[in-house]
Design goal:
This protein is α/β, with parallel strands linked by helices. The protein folds into 2 domains: about 130 residues, Rossmann fold (3-Layer(aba) Sandwich); about 80 residues, Arc Repressor Mutant, subunit A (Orthogonal Bundle), CATH 1.10.10.10. The chain is about 50% helix and about 15% strand. It contains 11 helices and 6 strands. The protein has a 6-stranded parallel beta sheet with strand order 2-1-3-4-5-6, with helices on both faces. α5 links the parallel β5 and β6. The longest helix has 15 residues. It is globular. The two termini are about 30 Å apart.
């Protein structure tokens, strides 16, 4: 079962999410938070696998709550579910540690698939959020090997990862084993000082380490 915590200050939104998610045999909604502070506190006591996090909430917003959750409970993934699609919200949310970013107009079935993707360690970004990442790409002054200590194979894996591919798909594309892909991804996270695949994708696009057209 995928343990999910819903964090949103609007009762109607929480009720709607709870109603639909309860119909999924592999998802268990373990709690509801009405603000960011409650989200952090309930994460501590309930230890959900996924937190569905609103951005704008009283007492503590979703970005602050996400940062605290990822600092204290790195194994809990945060999926931003919001109405805001501008870069001033998308980029800080991902930098805070959100592994996914979706808008509230998402189809219910797509939301469920996004939750399952996070559990599989895959990226889940709304196309609009992806377009915001593409806009932050910075000019590349020096060749990647002078700025970043990634091996050529790690750069290949990073490029495939940025396209949202799973470990299995990356392994198939590069003709290596999934175990090898996992090792490369672990090395990439360590070298780039990022926590997850979404942050690695953002880093790659910002610093010109991969082609943003593949996102």
């Amino acid at each position: 079962m995928i343990r999910v915590l819903i964090a949103d200050d609007h009762h109607v939104v929480r009720r709607g999410l709870l109603f639909f998610l309860k119909t999924q045999k592999d998802i268990n909604v373990v709690g509801e938070a009405t603000n960011g502070r409650e989200a952090v506190e309930l994460t501590a006591s309930l230890r959900p696998d996924i937190v569905l996090m609103d951005l704008v909430m009283p007492e503590m917003d979703g970005i602050q709550a996400t940062k605290k959750i990822k600092e204290q409970y790195p194994n809990t993934e945060v999926l931003m579910l919001t109405s805001f699609s501008d870069r001033d919200h998308v980029i800080p949310a991902i930098e805070a540690g959100a592994a996914g970013y979706q808008l509230k107009d998402i189809e219910p079935d797509d939301l469920v698939e996004s939750i399952r993707k996070l559990m599989r360690g895959e990226n889940t970004l709304h196309p609009i959020a992806t377009s915001q990442l593409m806009k932050v790409r910075e000019p590349q002054i020096d060749p990647p090997h002078k700025l970043y200590p990634l091996t050529p194979r790690e750069q290949d894996v990073l490029s495939e990862l940025t396209k949202g591919k799973s470990n299995k798909e990356i392994a198939s594309s590069l003709f290596v084993t999934e175990k090898t892909v996992k090792t490369h991804i672990s090395n990439i996270f360590s070298k780039l000082h990022v926590q997850d695949r979404t942050q690695a994708a953002l880093y790659a696009v910002k610093h010109g380490l991969t082609d943003p057209s593949g996102l």
